[in-house]
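Supplementary Methods, section 5.1.

A reviewer requested that the exact input to the structure prediction be made available. We therefore reproduce it here, unchanged from the version used in the analyses.
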Amino acid sequence: MNTHTSRAVFRVQHDPMWQNSFQFYFWNEAIFGNTRRISKVNPLTFTELKEDECFERPDPSFHLRPDEAQNLMDELWRAGLRPTEGSGSAGSLAATERHLADMRSLVFKTKPA
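The structure derived from this sequence is encoded token-by-token as follows.
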């Protein structure tokens, strides 16, 4: 049986010594039957647009399937990045804790912390 599978892989590393930056490693693993092929993404380049091209919708730089996007999010979290708005589990927990403090102040007639 000749099978073909392919998946995008991300790794993110925080490097405080290099301008406090995050380094992104992105490659594709493909298996064709018994042959494994790995392709890496080269450094991204920017192409300046002409004035009349600025209003056109550009092609995406790349696209990800949901499982690949999840891999990227997991890698960013592992490297120490968190959502700004705080609507994730940590933000929800903080909101719940504030709500509980308000409820305690109402029930026990105290000032909220």
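The chain has a mean pLDDT of 84. These observations are discussed further in the main text.
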